[in-house]
Write a structure and sequence with these properties.
Helix content is 41%, strand content 18%. The protein is of the alpha+beta class. Among the domains are: 112 residues, no CATH class; 71 residues, EpsJ-like (Ribonucleotide Reductase Protein R1, domain 1, Orthogonal Bundle), CATH 1.10.40. Helix 3 packs across helix 4. The protein is extended and about 115 Å long.
Length: 347
């Protein structure tokens, strides 16, 4: 009897030890699975950040290539700039340039209606002088912009145009329909009038009378960079229409510029070597001639550009997996000096 009890006690101890061991093994198994999952997640995260750094480096290399083109490329037409200039627009120079594990492209898309967008349908630098500079445009140009592109009525357009001028000028005198500190102080969330240049186009939303609807119609044809004059060799039909040029004449200007193949930046392009060459598009109707004369008298047109937007995309491919990084910057070309970077944004 004593032997049986002793054996039973041993069996119970062994069973308890076995159960404890099983519990420990189960705990260790769960811990191992959790650890493996965590390590796997950390490895994926590390791989993601590594790919992000690589795509950023590729995009940065694209920016440097574009800047080098601005510095070193021989400009055979120093009196005018157009899509025929290889440093400005060239698939060979800017499309899918291999580097390391990936490649970079510098370009943009021309969307519906002619507005420039992010993408890669056009390879090269985007000319900021094909847009209207809200820091430099006269009140009459701003009024035409608001009426034609912003779809504001004439009275509303005049008031907003004057408010834009009041926002950027350094005096405290209120233009007709405009606004200075006292007008902005009466709002629900008061703030002062800036009395200085716009730094980004989104500042327009702070201007008296500006609405999100009008701004969204304007944003693709305005800029805060450059001399304020529009380069007719690179301007879109939509930007010309924003200045008050009829749709018919704006399209004829663009079609004439593209040449027989109707493609920008090819050998058969018709280039405007001076503003006066705009007459080469054919006979102008009376109103069209008046519109061109008006813009010429306002010194709103040019054939030269000095500020460019670089949209560089770095692309890394691993089988079906693709990672992208983009850098957008605006640079100003200067004579006998390195280009100045006016804006920098990474995505």
């Amino acid at each position: 009897m004593r032997y049986i009890l002793r054996n039973k006690k041993n069996y119970e101890q062994k069973a308890s030890t076995l159960i404890l061991a099983l519990w420990i093994l189960s705990f260790l198994a769960v811990f191992a699975v959790g650890l493996a999952h965590n390590v796997s997640s950390q490895l994926r995260l590390a791989s993601y950040f590594q790919d992000r750094l690589k795509t950023r480096a590729l995009a940065y290399a694209g920016v440097q290539r574009a800047i080098i083109q601005l510095i070193l490329a021989k400009d055979e037409t120093p009196n005018y700039d157009s899509f025929a200039d290889e440093w400005l627009s060239s698939e060979e120079t800017y499309k899918e340039i291999p580097l390391g594990d990936g490649y970079f492209s510098i370009g943009y898309s021309v969307g519906k209606g002619g507005e420039e967008q992010l993408g890669e349908d056009m390879y090269g630098l985007m000319d900021e002088s094909n847009k209207i500079n809200i820091n430099r445009a006269s009140v009459n140009v701003l009024k035409a912009l608001l009426e034609n592109a912003g779809k504001a009525n004439p009275e509303e357009a005049a008031d907003i145009a004057n408010a834009i001028v009041d926002w950027r000028d350094k005096d405290v005198f209120v233009s007709p329909g405009g606004a200075e500190d006292s007008q902005y102080a009466m709002g629900e969330f008061p703030y002062p009038c800036k009395d200085d240049d716009f730094q980004v186009i989104e500042e327009l939303l702070l201007v008296k009378g500006m609405t999100p609807e009008i701004f969204n119609r304007l944003k693709d044809v305005i800029t805060v960079y450059g001399s304020g004059r529009i380069n007719i060799n690179t301007v879109s039909a939509r930007s010309l229409m924003a200045l008050g040029i009829s749709e018919s004449l704006a399209q004829r200007i663009v079609d004439h510029r593209r040449g027989a193949d109707n493609i920008e930046g090819t050998e058969d392009d018709n280039i405007f070597e001076s503003v006066g060459d705009i007459g080469k598009v054919g006979s102008l109707f009376t109103q069209e001639a008046e519109d061109v004369s008006r813009l010429t008298s306002l010194n709103a047109l040019t054939v030269k550009s000095d500020v460019f937007r670089i949209c560089s995309t770095g692309i890394l491919k691993k089988g079906s997996y693709e990672a992208r990084g983009r850098i957008i910057c605006v640079v100003e070309r200067k004579k006998n000096e390195p280009p100045s970077i006016l804006y920098w944004h990474e995505e």
